[in-house]
Amino acid sequence: MNGNYRPIINIRRKVFTEIARLAYEELDPVTHLEESIFTIIPGEVAQFRESVFKERAIVGERMRMGLGLPMRKASEHDRLSKGIEKIDTNERVVMHPLVEVIPFACEACPTKGFLVTNNCRKCLAHPCVQVCPVNAVSIGKYQAEINQEKCIRCGRCREACPYSAIVGFDRPCASVCGVKAIGSDYLGRALIDQEKCVACGMCLVKCPFGAIADKTEIYQLVKAMKKGAKIYAAIAPAFVGQFGPLVTPDILFEAIRQLGMEDVVEVSLGADVETISEAKEFLEKVPEERPFLGTSCCPAWAFAARKNYPELASCISDSATPMMATARRIKREHPDAAVVFIGPCIAKKNEASQVQVRSLIDFVITFEELMGMFAAKGLELPEVEGRSRQDQASATGRNFAVTGGVAAAVTKAVQELDPSRDVPAECANGLEECMKLLKLAQLGKKDGYLLEGMGCPSGCIGGPGTLLPVNKAAKQVEEFAKQSPYASALQNVLALETKR
Amino acid sequence: MQKLHVQICVGTHCTMMGAMDILDKAEELVHAFPEQPIEIEMVKCLQDCKNEKNTAPVVIINQHKYRRATAQQVMEKMMEVIQL
Predict the structure, then answer these.
(1) Mean pLDDT of A373-387
(2) Which terminus of chain B has fewer Cβ atoms in its 10 Å neighbourhood, N or C?
(3) ipTM of the shown complex
């Protein structure tokens, strides 16, 4: 989440709130969809774009995706409510593709390139010309000029200019895409290659035009609660502090119950379970059976590995992810329960729709989407009276939310099981680093290592579905970890009794 | 030096609409001007949103209430007092 992108974030959150409201107030989505759009974009004066009608059209597509519907094509005639009867249900609806560019919201930013600005002094030395390996820079009438057809985008001219007159730019969406999944359509607008995309959601957060959105399951989740389903919330370790500085974990858990859920379980408990099994896997199999062990918890990292380095897939731990381990525990204790994973992550929605996970996880929503549910229900969080809560996870499990936390947890567990064993570990922070680390691993340069991959910069606390600035979230997670009575996963009695 | 009292509502709607970003930016100014007497207070819902739509986030700076506050606006109002 980037707080400087306020207008975009607020529209997204108003969409989530409206969708939750439709479900909570049991309004017919077909007849109320357009009214919701007016609630979000009121009046007749455009605030952000050239016309209020375009703003509403974009919010219309956002509402559709928020309801779990596919986007419409601007070139084909379809009702806004087309297909709504299929998603007006209390179960997960099919989601692929999860993250999409709304084409008419995209401003078709130029792709990567370099440009001479009017800071150019047309100097005598013109080092920009001297350093260009393809002779693309020349001195024009008023300033240096770059021939875009010859330019190979190496950036040497920018480095050489003593006046900082040459700027490099890239599409914000493409520049943060670690798997290089963003191309262009026939009008030059961004288009996501769904074969490459791992749904990390970074493009969605980074687009300054708010042209990228993902699908949500808010509507179906609320409908399920309304129908009396016993929903248990599995809440990801990054939750601490996300809902405001006055909202303690006690208050948050009670507020979630007041939304209509049975109870809340920390996914950090599942993180402890994963820690123990990955530690054992490392001791038993690395390096004899597997050259290295990659952690399994981050779905963006795991998908990126599977899609790009299928031969390494077996080296990504096959232990259950914390989400799965937590859900399995809940369903063992309460066989009639349904589980909603609440986290900072969009890629988890993809993980949950995989065959082996589908039976464990019924819904996935983000912290932002949960906040929309609180707002729709009119729950004033700081006024909620918290109930005392049992600590379910160790300090190391709670630290899973921050880059380095997973490797630290597994390393600690390995050394507790076998003090003689050394654990060389490396962490990749963000999907681009993940891809580099996988490349090195493929070349055999990380044999014997424990490799932690985090698709989001800073870890889960930097995820696309968060509300709190990352620096604060890191402190909050650290503080909450310190409050745990268990210093490591192996001390957590709850984790020890939970089998994978 | 005039005292600066900033009250930021961190109720559900205000938090959703950006109160924590405002808090972050206000705190940055506290660090940037350590000699200035600035009190930042996080307050529960001020009930503005119960009567009227789209008021969040609400911030009160030295008794003056700002609805639909932005971090930029809050920083600017704070700087007006700091620079006195």
Answers:
(1) 95
(2) C
(3) 0.94
